[in-house]
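fyi for ur records
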Amino acid sequence: MAIEFTKYHGLGNDFILIDNRANSTPVVTPEEAVQLCDRHFGIGADGVIFALPGENGTDYTMRIFNSDGSEPEMCGNGIRCLGRFLADLEGENRNKDSYAIYTLAGVMTPQLMPDGQVKVDMGEPRLLAGEIPTTLAAGNEKVINQSLEVAGKSWNVTCVSMGNPHCITFVEDVAAIPLENIGPLFENHPVFPQRINTEFIEVVNRNHLKMRVWERGAGITLACGTGACASLVAGVLTGNCDRTATVELPGGPLQIEWSQTDGRVYMTGPAQRVFTGNW
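which gave:
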């Protein structure tokens, strides 16, 4: 059976999008997703995203398999791509500019903006150690500027969940971090029982952060939307930045706001179609 797909990317964080609206079960297995994501023997992507029927009154459901076959709770760049994909699927029948999408991290709402950007209400960050999860502190305590030993060095880390787990550390020069060596050691550190996404952040000024990321299940990627959100929250908690900032990733910038009014995090950035095909 041929499966149609469309390739999208958000700041170089790329995904294979599949129209799965006729079935509530993904039409591709995790093992097949690994093959599809292979950049030499497959299509090439950081993950495969499925647009499934909505649950609990939502418009659609999002599921994603990472390039290693694991399933994360959510993906920030991915949900922007999904919002654009759904608008493209609906075409002339589209009668709304935003979608309520059910994810394993809760309901997310991507909104298509007039300038082509996609703005997503990412919900409230979760800050307690038990919510992340991590054993760096008691379950009902926050992890802010906590010391963590990795690769023989002590790092000050702040942990935030955006529905998926993040460990953020602020550094002098983000370009100098040996990400391919240090990333796996953070991801698989025993204090993170469900593994972790890790963001290394350089503060340019209070409204501008530079970020590199090692994603759980995908490794080095050009951008991570939930990571950018978590990093801004960590920056506010540690006094490093204001509540609205540009987060500069290797693939380009995201605009992140942690609203003082409703406590929710809003992410705005691009989502672009690359090509369509059959597998």
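The two ends are 8 Å apart (CA to CA). thats all i got for now
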